[in-house]
């Protein structure tokens, strides 16, 4: 018997498989039993109602996809009234992803969403901050620290900081988030990318650019998850390009305590529930009885810190 | 069968309506120069479909073709008694090129049936559909449903030339009156189609209008519907990622109660009220 129980700070998950924000909603219950996964993570919500970006909002590139959905949101009132009650029927921890374009608004929604039924808040600090020329909060350690300090003061719930790959200061940002009170890091969001139709010469996304996700993001996000796990003491949740049990194992070995599955669910909506069972089989095949035995077991003993934390390809 | 497939089968569908499942290709043949007809050997559980619904298809990756996202495709036919699911498609891009390579006996992963299909209200006895090209595939199951319910159907089928007119035999088999219009014969212009539809309306022979896809057809039928107070429905397309409502990628604009709203084609659609649909 293999124990998949995973702890993220004070929260206990039945297994380490959960959805990535934006790739999951109540709609998925038409296809799978969402009670079988470790946690439920919502699409990012904002305080105000928002419409989202122009279409096309998604395009595919070889073996991966770009998206620029924006953050269409029905607003926080609708969310509290309709969405939170839906998830109450499940034992899996309910994690709400939130965002805002200023620290003030961010702190406000963080406080307002700290209501019964919400078990943790994933703070999407990878989104543009209008007070910093549209640079994402999580691009810099200073803006990360500043916004996380405000968010920490606004809620007693566990805060998971979702980091961006669009930075050259991965470990400094991770340390800043931890220092300001984050309870876990989600590593990472999508990578800013572009695709152009050579016949029409138009960008393939209505918003010109968008985030890369899917298998081609995995080596980048894995590298970041590894660096973050080395740099901080709080749990790291790996996210980026996971579609197979080998991907899950790789993130866990790199130091992630749990993982989020995103784009793969679009390709195969049964991916998450399948991965739970496959992880059980994989661990059994390795004679591992508890998933925690795999976490952070990467054999990097001989590597110098300068190599572990490098931010440029050698 | 691999573990993964077995797991997916066992765990697919929490509510007994939508399934991610493996089917097997029975045939995949060229219909005329432009279209292909794919027949799948499909389990009963996915054949409880409604006209206008769609499946989200996992097009096979091969050396030559590497589609990544699933492709939404409207259902051409569903036959529980034969255990068959049919699609009619035009080879147009990476996904359909990959589908064209499917051979008899190949496995094919499908997700569905998805979305909200066409409705036929109790007092809609005379139905009129207008469709062109591959849009005829989307409307074919409506003809089947109309026959099942004993409603009279008129199908105006449009194409470039008479030899690429599709599904007219199928519509006739379903008891529909078929009117063909083609570019080659100079009969497919909007003025002529308008005249045909108006003639039917004047004769009191239209309770509901149906179409799909085309902006021009929408504009024509929306105008006629509004003018004569005749309800209608249109199936719309939009690029999709997840197909089940999670990603918010496939939204379109609609006019409702004097406001512009956004709805997901995969979830609230793909069939929408004709008067609420907006040109694009």
Automatic annotation (TrEMBL), chain A:
The keyword Flavoprotein applies. Pathway: Pyrimidine metabolism; UMP biosynthesis via de novo pathway. Keywords: Cytoplasm, Flavoprotein, FMN, Oxidoreductase, Pyrimidine biosynthesis. It is found in: Cytoplasm. Its main location: cytoplasm. Its EC number is 1.3.-.-. It comes from the Bacteria. It is an enzyme of class 1 (oxidoreductase). Substrate binds at residues 43, 67-71, 124, 189-190. Signal peptide: none annotated. Its cofactor is FMN. It holds the Pfam family DHO_dh. The keyword Coiled coil does not apply. The active site is at residue 127. Binds 1 FMN per subunit. InterPro entries: Aldolase_TIM (IPR013785), DHO_dehydrogenase (IPR050074), DHOD_1B (IPR033888), Dihydroorotate_DH_1 (IPR024920), Dihydroorotate_DH_1_2 (IPR012135), Dihydroorotate_DH_cat (IPR005720), Dihydroorotate_DH_CS (IPR001295), Dihydroorotate_DH_I (IPR049622). GO terms for molecular function: dihydroorotate dehydrogenase (NAD+) activity. FMN binds at residues 21, 43-44, 124, 162, 214, 240-241, 262-263. HAMAP family: DHO_dh_type1. Catalyzes the conversion of dihydroorotate to orotate. PANTHER family: DIHYDROOROTATE DEHYDROGENASE (FUMARATE), DIHYDROOROTATE DEHYDROGENASE (QUINONE), MITOCHONDRIAL-RELATED. Belongs to the dihydroorotate dehydrogenase family. Type 1 subfamily. This is Dihydroorotate dehydrogenase. It comes from Thalassovita aquimarina. The lineage of its organism: Bacteria, Pseudomonadati, Pseudomonadota, Alphaproteobacteria, Rhodobacterales.
TrEMBL record, chain B:
Keywords: 2Fe-2S, Electron transport, FAD, Flavoprotein, Iron, Iron-sulfur, Metal-binding, Transport. Pfam families: DHODB_Fe-S_bind. It comes from the Bacteria. PROSITE patterns: FAD_FR (PS51384). Gene3D superfamilies: Dihydroorotate dehydrogenase, electron transfer subunit, Nucleotide-binding domain of ferredoxin-NADP reductase (FNR) module, Translation factors. The keyword Flavoprotein applies. Coiled coil: none annotated. Its cofactor is [2Fe-2S] cluster. InterPro entries: Cyt_c3_hydrogenase_gsu, Dihydroorotate_DH_ele_sf, Dihydroorotate_DH_Fe-S-bd, FAD-bd_FR_type, FNR_nucleotide-bd, PyrK_electron_transfer, Riboflavin_synthase-like_b-brl. Residues 18-120 form the FAD-binding FR-type domain. Belongs to the PyrK family. This is Dihydroorotate dehydrogenase electron transfer subunit.
């Amino acid at each position: 018997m293999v124990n998949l129980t995973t702890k993220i700070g004070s929260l206990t998950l039945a297994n380490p498989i959960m959805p990535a924000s934006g790739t999951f909603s109540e709609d998925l219950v038409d296809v799978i039993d969402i009670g079988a996964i470790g946690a439920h993570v919502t699409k990012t919500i904002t305080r105000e109602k928002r419409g989202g970006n122009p279409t096309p909002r998604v395009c595919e590139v070889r073996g991966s996809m770009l998206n620029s959905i924006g953050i269409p949101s029905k607003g926080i009132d609708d969310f509290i009234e309709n969405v939170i009650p839906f998830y109450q029927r499940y034992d899996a921890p309910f994690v709400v992803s939130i965002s805002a374009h200023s620290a003030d608004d961010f702190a406000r929604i963080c406080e307002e969403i700290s209501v019964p039924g919400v078990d943790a808040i994933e703070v999407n600090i990878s989104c543009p901050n209008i007070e910093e020329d549209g640079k994402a909060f999580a691009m810099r350690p200073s803006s990360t620290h500043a916004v996380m300090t405000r968010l920490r003061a606004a809620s007693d719930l566990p805060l998971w900081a979702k980091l961006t790959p669009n930075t050259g200061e991965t470990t400094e940002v991770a340390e800043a988030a931890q220092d300001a009170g984050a309870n876990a890091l989600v590593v990472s969001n999508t990578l800013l990318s572009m695709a152009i139709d050579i016949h029409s010469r138009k960008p393939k996304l209505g918003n010109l650019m968008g985030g890369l996700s899917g298998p081609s993001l995995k080596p980048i996000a894995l590298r970041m998850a590894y660096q973050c796990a080395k740099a901080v003491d709080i749990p790291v949740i790996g996210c980026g390009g996971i579609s197979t049990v080998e991907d899950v194992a790789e993130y866990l070995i790199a130091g992630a305590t749990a993982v989020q599955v995103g784009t793969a669910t679009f390709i195969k909506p049964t991916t998450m529930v399948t991965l739970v069972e496959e992880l059980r089989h994989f661990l059994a095949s390795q004679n591992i009885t508890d998933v925690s035995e795999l976490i952070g077991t990467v054999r990097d003993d001989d590597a110098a810190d300068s190599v572990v934390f490098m931010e440029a390809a050698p | 069968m691999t573990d993964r497939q077995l797991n997916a089968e066992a765990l697919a569908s929490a509510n007994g309506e939508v399934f991610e499942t493996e089917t097997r290709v029975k045939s995949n043949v060229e219909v005329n120069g432009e279209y292909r007809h794919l027949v799948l050997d499909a389990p009963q559980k996915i054949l409880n479909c409604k006209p206008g619904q769609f499946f989200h298809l996992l097009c096979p990756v091969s050396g030559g073709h590497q589609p990544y996202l699933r492709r939404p495709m409207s259902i051409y036919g569903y036959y529980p008694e034969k255990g068959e699911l049919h699609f009619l498609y035009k080879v147009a891009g990476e996904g359909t090129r990959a589908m064209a390579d499917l051979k008899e006996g190949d496995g094919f992963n499908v997700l569905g049936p998805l979305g909200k299909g066409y409705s036929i209200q109790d007092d809609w006895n005379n139905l009129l559909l207008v469709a062109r090209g591959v849009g005829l595939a989307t409307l074919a199951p409506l003809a089947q449903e109309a026959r099942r319910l004993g409603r009279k159907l008129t199908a105006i089928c449009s194409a470039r030339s008479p030899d690429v007119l599709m599904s007219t035999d199928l519509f006739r088999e379903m008891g529909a009156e078929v009117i063909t219009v083609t570019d080659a014969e100079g009969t497919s212009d909007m003025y002529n189609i308008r005249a045909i539809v108006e003639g039917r309306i004047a004769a009191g022979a239209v309770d509901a209008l149906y179409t799909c896809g085309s902006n021009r057809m929408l504009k024509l039928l929306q105008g006629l519907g509004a003018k004569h107070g005749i309800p209608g429905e249109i199936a719309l397309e939009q690029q999709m990622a997840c197909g089940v409502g999670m990603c918010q990628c496939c939204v379109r604009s609609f006019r409702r109660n004097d406001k512009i709203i956004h709805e997901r084609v995969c979830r609230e659609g793909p069939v929408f009220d004709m008067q609420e649909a907006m040109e694009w």
